[in-house]
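User: structure tokens for Small GTP-binding protein domain-containing protein, please.
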Amino acid sequence: MRKTIGILAHVDAGKTTFAEQVLYHTNSIRSRGRVDHRDSFLDSHSIERERGITVFSDQAIFEYEDSTYYLIDTPGHIDFSCEMERAIEAMDYAVLIISALQGVQGHTETVWQLLRKNKIPTFIFINKMDSAILTENEILCEIKDNLSKDVCSITNEFSSVINEELIEFIAERDEELFLNYIEGKYSYEVWFNKFIALIKENKVFPCFSGSALQDIGIDKFLDKLHKLTYTDYSEAEGFGGKVYKIRHDDIGNKLTFIKALKGSLNIKQEIIYGDNKLGKINNIRIYNGTKYKEVKKVVAGDVFAVIGLDSSKIGDCIGNINYKPNFEMVPTLSSKVIFDSKLNVKNILEYFKLLEEEDPGLNIIWQEKTKEIQVHIMGIIQLEVLKQVVKERFNLDVEFAPCEIIYKETIENTVIGYGHFEPLGHYAEVHLELETLKRGSGIVFSNKCHVDDLAVGNQNLVRTHIFEKEHSGILTGSELTDIKITLLTGRAHNKHTSGGDFREATFRALRQGLEKANNILLEPYYDFKIQADVDYIGKIISDIQRLNGSFKEPEIVENKFIIRGRGPVSKFMSYTMEFINNTRGKGKISFKLSGYDRCHNEDEIIQNKNYNKKADIECTSSSIFCSKGQAFVVEGENVERYMHCIE
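Assistant: Done. Predicted tokens:
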């Protein structure tokens, strides 16, 4: 049986040390490394060893009894959350490490929610119990309060009879077993199998405890993990898998990392994604840390890398797999790349595009007008690491400008936009309805155009052009979002319409509609959770109001309070250190990105951005018409009376 186990945690919870112990106990490595000794097996990159944190997700392999396990170690620092979230795509089960010293921390809750969204069965290991101040029971209560009531402790050995507390816990989650329990009927095998099923269904979450550093509880954990997990992959079907990681080896080969979900894959086999041929498999590698072995065939359940899929992207599904990832961890900051003006900017852009292929969250943008490269990031630490990566891989020295918030734009009403493109020898007209959508919807396309007005092929062209790039708003030039775009009608010419005409007409119609709409600026928001002594409640509430946040009524338990609320990233991103100082390090604060909403200081940002919509020649609302063999331009505010599809 093949199983993929992911190890996740808030930074400094002992995740990598735990992974090291698992590999040692299963004879996958001969000696145990340590993060502080800079010799851990999976933190193999020089940057990781220097900083003492996991930056890149890496895999190891171990055998345990009758199963092969792929172990994926993921970053714990919030700045590398995108890397962590992508690794979740390959997991069958997850192990969430929680430090007994810090308990459930801010990022712990974020990781937990991502695991729940992706329906990954999860085990919890309370680490550092040798140094804990609280008892296991007290920490377990904190986990239940902050993560799930369906957590159960199974630190004690399984015997021929499961202990009474666990029997009752399982029975409460199954009607038939509950009736048997009430009647005094009990079967170890039935209860045990039901427990395994409940774990797989994400209905219960087993919790263990120990100390990775002191090698306490690791053997027991491995034994129970093995007994309580299973996979049922089929090798009989055609191959199917998903791409969860892209890397490049030392000689520049593109490595496409795939989790096989069904069937088998052979070397030299051709790969298809949708209607596109991604390439032919030239090499298959199974990695164990930095080392790998080449194989001729892999099967469902395997995690491996291939060479030959040059057009593959993270999130691609290969074969007959109907799945599209929806990543939540999205960078909210941007920065400009600063480099020596004597260098060839095209080469530098190529380097950063290569990095973007490995980390799509970077979202590398080339600003043609200013000749600048923009990069999207999660935080300052990620920028520092990126600087080191660029130096090591490309021998290039770069700096980064101060980070800025990534804003977006939308509209709050419904309008119709018109676009016409008719220079000599060309013809296309498009009418689009733009209407506001709820936050987080992105761009949605709808089609009400009749085939009598526009052929299906041309209608599909309009849709393609809507999604081929990010569109700019008219307030700051920021990305457009949360808008439903409906094709109402359009027109083509049998003789003159050619490639690119509908692209021009579509973009002009979109821009013309935006210029008539009520446009608003959006900024990213955090959901926050604050816990501290009641002595600090007045100060905390004052801070939240000062930072333009909102909050629910505080919950007060004994001498502690909890406040949940929401506030702009721009205001709260630097609040953590102030909070720690104000509460003398005794409070807890956690943030989770909750999407975009109306900008709290819209006028100020618009003024600072100083975006001139008329000067943006790539985004114009004007249309081009032709009369008596002569093309002429009509400004956006006047185009409606010239449109051919308006009676």
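User: Anything notable?

Assistant: The first strand starts at residue 2 and ends at 9.
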